[in-house]
Structure formats: structure tokens, C-alpha cells
Amino acid sequence: MLNLVLFGPPGAGKGTQSEKLIEKYQLIHLSTGDILRSEISNGTSLGLEAKKLMDQGVLVPDEVVIGMISNQLDSNKNARGFIFDGFPRTVAQAEALDRLLNTKASAISGMVALVVDSEELEKRLLLRGKDSGRPDDANPEIIKKRIVEYNSKTAPVANYYREQNKLTTINGVGTIDQIFDSICSVVDAY
Ligand code: ADP
After folding, report:
1. Residues lining ligand 1, judged by CB closer than 6 Å?
2. Cα-based angle 83, 86, 90 (whole degrees, multiple of 5)
3. Which of 2, 20, 66, 189 allows an S-S link to 81, with CB 3.0 to 4.6 Å?
4. What does pTM read for this prediction?
5. Catalytic residue numbers, as ranges
6. What is the pLDDT of residues 50-80, one digit of tens each?
7. How remote is the CA of residue 33 from the centroid of ligand 1, in Å?
8. How far is CA 149 from CA 60, 75, 155, 158, in A?
9. What fold does the segment set 2-27+79-189 form as a domain?
């Protein structure tokens, strides 16, 4: 099984690259952000709770997203593998993911981290906010808050995989196809 963690700050291009990767490698895309937004549009109680936090640019509780991922793994038993996008976002989530995969005799193959400077990130997010309809992309203060959350809680997740020799960093600035080719050369080596 190929289990890839696609990592990087908000706006790094994880969603864009995930779309291309799932097509090429026939993987299931698990984006916790997308799952949360679909809970919001379905008006579930989980969605209503999550929306309050997401609109402020802060993370939703670990147990909520871990439960969502666990459900997704159970309902995709015959998958060839998964791309985890926007998850794990804390070290506690990374540890829980290892435990979940372990119960399925599986493991993370590797993490690919997209590196993009903060000026470029803010530019991309504001541009996305113009037509994505995402309230958290439209407001510069919320974007800053998400980057602060990323630096304090999420960035340490890269070390978690580095310690397991599973981390590769990739330049996330360039054309979509250039970045895709760099990711593929890492994935092909797994
Ligand atoms: P981006 O990567 O552009 O910030 P996402 O769509 O991945 O956007 O996430 C949007 C919001 O959803 C986050 O700011 C956070 O509130 C929530 N969220 C998504 N994934 C997680 C997660 N794994 N843990 C906690 N909160 C999450």
C-alpha cells in the first residue's frame, strides 16, 4: 500500500497536487479540510461545531479529525493507498495515524513537504479567497492566524517523520507540472 502524507502550510498547493497524484497512482484522497467543509454544507452537528473554529483559523480538536480519518480508512478497505492532505496537523494526530494504520498492517510510506515562502502563501490564499467562497481565505487576519497555527502546532509534524527517515522536502514554487514531477520522482522511489 502507498500511503503518502502531503505536507505544507496553507496555500502550499497540497490540494492541487493531490488531484494529480490520485489520478496517476490510483489513490484515495483524504483531505480533512474537504471532509469538514462537506460536514458544514450538510449541516451536521460536527460541521456546525467545526465551522466556528475554521472561520477563526484555528484547528478543530484532534479527536474529531482522527475519528473522521478512521471512518474513511474503514470505508475504503480495498484502496491501493491514500494521500493524506491537511492531516496529520499535530504530532498527536500523527501518532494516532500510525496506530490506525498499524491495526490494518499498514504504515506511512513517506511524507512529501512542499516548501513555499510566507509572502507567496499570503498572495495565493487571498487570490483563492476571491472565488473559492472559503471565508477563511478572504480575510488577511484569519490567514495570518492559520499561518501562526501552522508554525506552532503543525510544523513539528515534519520532525516526527524526519526522525523516522520518512521526510522529503520539495520546492513548492514553480509551475504545477514542475512540482508534480518532483513529487512523482519521490513517490516512484517508495
Ligand atoms: P488549508 O490547508 O488551506 O489551511 P484546509 O482545507 O486543509 O486548508 O483546512 C481548513 C481548516 O480546517 C483549518 O484551518 C482547520 O480549522 C480545519 N482542519 C483541517 N484539517 C484539520 C486537522 N487535521 N486538524 C485540525 N483542524 C483541521
Report:
1. 10-11, 32-33, 36, 53-54, 57-60, 65, 86-87, 89, 93, 136, 146
2. 115
3. 2
4. 0.93
5. 14, 89, 128, 134, 146
6. 999 999 999 999 999 999 999 999 999 999 9
7. 5
8. 11, 30, 9, 14
9. Rossmann fold (3.40.50)
